[in-house]
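Write out structure tokens for MIP18 family-like domain-containing protein.
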Amino acid sequence: MEANTGIDTQELGEKIVGVLKTIYDPEIPVDIYELGLIYDVFVNEDREVKILMTLTSPNCPVAESLPVEVEEKVKSLDLVADAEVEITFDPPWTQELMSEEAKLELGLL
């Protein structure tokens, strides 16, 4: 019989997305979630979070600090036991990954 941990991983996932929407790329006035920099958010039953994200370019000025900021802000959520950020450039980020809202904000629509 599976133990019920009482954690709603989907609800926690939504809270994590809420936090991600407070983190901005310093060069673009749009949060990293709407920019499409977050590829995936995994939450397991132990409340461990893994975030797969990218940067606008490998030479992004915040390549060192942005993943750390994401990790720290997600870890600051009470329900999160641990968080890890993995950076990938596969697939590379393009403007196509941005939300309609972000494109509108940047005058791309």
